[in-house]
Amino acid sequence: RSGEMAKLTQLIDNEVFRAYATYTTIVLLKMMLMSLITAYFRITRKAFVNPEDTAPLGKGESAKKYLRTDPDVERARRGHLNDLENIVPFFGIGLLYALSGPDLYTALLHFRIFAGARITHTFAYLIPLPQPTRGLSWAAGYAVTISMAYKVLKTALYL
Amino acid sequence: RSGEMAKLTQLIDNEVFRAYATYTTIVLLKMMLMSLITAYFRITRKAFVNPEDTAPLGKGESAKKYLRTDPDVERARRGHLNDLENIVPFFGIGLLYALSGPDLYTALLHFRIFAGARITHTFAYLIPLPQPTRGLSWAAGYAVTISMAYKVLKTALYL
Amino acid sequence: RSGEMAKLTQLIDNEVFRAYATYTTIVLLKMMLMSLITAYFRITRKAFVNPEDTAPLGKGESAKKYLRTDPDVERARRGHLNDLENIVPFFGIGLLYALSGPDLYTALLHFRIFAGARITHTFAYLIPLPQPTRGLSWAAGYAVTISMAYKVLKTALYL
């Protein structure tokens, strides 16, 4: 089956597809980082949601007080959910876009703006930066995804 | 590398894959629309969650009263999360299904039912329509995804 | 277009890709199961969030008391969200990894550990098992995804 393997390798050798693979991996890793940031805030702020997670902090009533919400934890969780809502469409529509034969320069432009926008969005959410920084970075990623969706539908439309 | 590009284009030229690309793009765009609907309700109902978002509405205590939940905002957010929970499996299992060599008619039937079900689900959630409209539209999309998963596992199973 | 269909079928005939398709379908189906578990707890605990869902339980004030949160429902929902946060990166990075030409044994090792970790995570969350079971199973899935991301970036990096 080495012939088939070679064909698969050709997919990852295509420059547009390699760029897609690179930027998608970067934004998915960035999204995964939100889990660590939430865990960091849960531990340093002592704000948990599952009773079994407070066991190291004491038993019975003394541990129950750590079952609470904390603004920093909630902020990180909102940033994480916003990533899911926006990075999932980029991953899906971007994959189809990369297979729709865009030219390399245009594709790179889309991928770079999206990744830059989502990284900016995370800083804007967590610091937090005054609006409209978070709003504009969200909108930039959204617009890039719409633009790729337009190319996919123009190339592939089959209803 | 134009030879490789040609091979990629062949993927998007396959009719089943084009149908998959079309319907996946449609449901992902529909999911993205939920962000705009949530933002619309947040602005018109003046119900925000981040203090930095209420700055245009006044300073200090006068703005704090807009940090609140609103039933329409929460409803749109639940619809959005339900989309994530159901459209992600469709996108993933549907991709593998499209690559598993289904016949075009069967594939189109699956994709069309799923897209129709999720659009119905959104109207049923937002209006809201009396049950069991939302429940049945959810179940239709769920059943289609299970059916595609069965085909994928039957074709590709390699544990 | 049977020639193109044949080429598509070659993708699903590749052993690494078949293994990816199998394990991704399994973990996406497992994630979908969380919807049924949440619905089961909502119905048996009579804990709903949408007023239209309580109609079978009575009218007016008598139904309003079922608009409440329940610890088992919330626990299932947290497990579901944790699945989304972790299975989406596996699905995306794993797809690119499967296309990056890993050897079959290494790929199977990654996919099996991830699937086992997420199934363990679900049991640990729902029963619940004492920590660090849930924490370690989460970390195992996370580490596998990072390892695949490293391979993807090493193979495909194009910034």
What does this protein structure show overall?
The structure is a homotrimer of 159-residue chains. By secondary structure, the first copy, chain A, is mainly alpha-helical. Chain A has one domain (1-157): Four Helix Bundle (Hemerythrin (Met), subunit A). Chain A is 76% helix and 0% strand. Chain A has six helices and no strands. The first copy, chain A, has helices spanning 2-13, 15-44, 61-64, 71-98, 104-126, 133-156. In chain A, helix 2 (15-44) packs antiparallel against helix 4 (71-98), helix 4 runs parallel beside helix 6 (133-156) and helix 5 (104-126) runs antiparallel to helix 6. Chain A is elongated and about 60 Å long. Chain A starts with a helix and ends with a helix. The interface between A and B is large, with 40 and 35 residues. Chains A, B, C: One of its GO terms (molecular function) is glutathione transferase activity. Chains A, B, C: This is Microsomal glutathione S-transferase 1. Chains A, B, C: It catalyses: RX + glutathione = an S-substituted glutathione + a halide anion + H(+). Chains A, B, C: Homotrimer; The trimer binds only one molecule of glutathione.
